[in-house]
Design a protein that fits this description.
Order of helices and strands: EHEHEHEHEHEEEHE
Shape: globular
Oligomer: single chain
Structural class: alpha/beta
Strand content: 15-25%
Largest sheet: 7 strands, parallel
Number of helices: 6
Strand order of the largest sheet: 3-2-1-4-5-6-9
């Protein structure tokens, strides 16, 4: 993001516009607050309108930046289309998509995982991410000035899975393929794509880590966590790079979590 020209008589450029999915809690909320605090206009998407409004209220306490709340289910193509139309109508363009919406699914042995639970994880984590990336790609390709950035929320599970996580782990491996393909296909249109792999940020999804979670050796252990704001600062850094530069993959994790050497 370039520094605005504030000389007398000049018109400041509009704030860059970001869309965050899963913005009602956890990582999504932390990233929304970081972007808003840095002067971005932020569209907040998620299934719970009340949670989005709470994120917007928190952002308003610290910044005058514009926010837009759009309740949407990213697994529904028509709702994704409406979401991106709302962003274009409000902000005129899209400079950043943080593809963050996701779910872990029930932590059960593979042979006990219900088909419907598998489909819920795949539909949310993979299909939802694809639908949003496709809509962002179309918007960024056709806007003027052309281009933008997509940051996908991966996971350290894309490298080292946990026990009883087959649906989540499979989708996060697939997210890496999505990231690489988006990077390649976006190249002619000034669309950059990177991925952040997160380990043990303190959110609702990781609550079990603070009370005891199954390890690869069959034991149960409490794991260290980190503040979600630490993740948000990394996303902000990636977002603020000029489009000529890209963080392709970044890993941000609680320093002492059992990841290096897991298993």
């Amino acid at each position: 993001m370039t520094t605005p020209d504030t000389r007398p008589g000049t018109t400041p450029p509009p704030a860059p516009a970001a869309l965050i999915t899963g913005a009602g809690s956890g990582i999504g909320r932390a990233v929304a607050l970081a972007l808003a605090g840095a002067g971005w206009s932020v569209a907040l998407a998620g299934r719970r309108a009340d949670a989005l409004e709470e994120t917007a209220r928190q952002a308003a306490r610290d910044t005058d930046g514009a926010t837009l709340c759009v309740p949407a289910d990213v697994t529904r193509p028509e709702q994704v289309d409406a979401l991106f139309a709302a962003v274009r109508d409000r902000f005129g363009r899209l400079d950043l998509l943080f593809n963050n919406a996701g779910t872990f699914g029930p932590p059960v042995p593979l042979d006990e995982l219900a088909y419907d639970d598998w489909r819920t994880v795949v539909d949310t984590n993979l299909t939802g991410a694809f639908l949003c990336a496709q809509a962002a790609f179309c918007t960024m390709k056709n806007q003027d000035p052309r281009g933008g950035r997509i940051i996908n929320n991966g996971s350290v599970s894309a490298h080292a899975p946990r026990p009883h996580s087959i649906a989540y782990t499979a989708t996060k491996h697939a997210m890496t393929g999505l990231t690489k393909s988006l990077s390649l296909d976006g190249r002619p249109y000034d669309i950059a794509c990177g991925q952040i792999d997160i380990g043990n940020a303190a959110t609702e999804m990781t609550g079990r880590m603070q009370t005891g979670i199954l390890q690869a050796d069959g034991s149960t252990a409490v794991e260290p966590v980190m503040d979600a704001a630490d993740v948000a600062r990394t996303v902000l850094h990636m977002a603020q790079l000029p489009l000529a530069a890209n963080v392709q993959f970044a890993t941000v994790m609680a320093t002492a979590m059992p990841y290096i050497g897991r298993g």
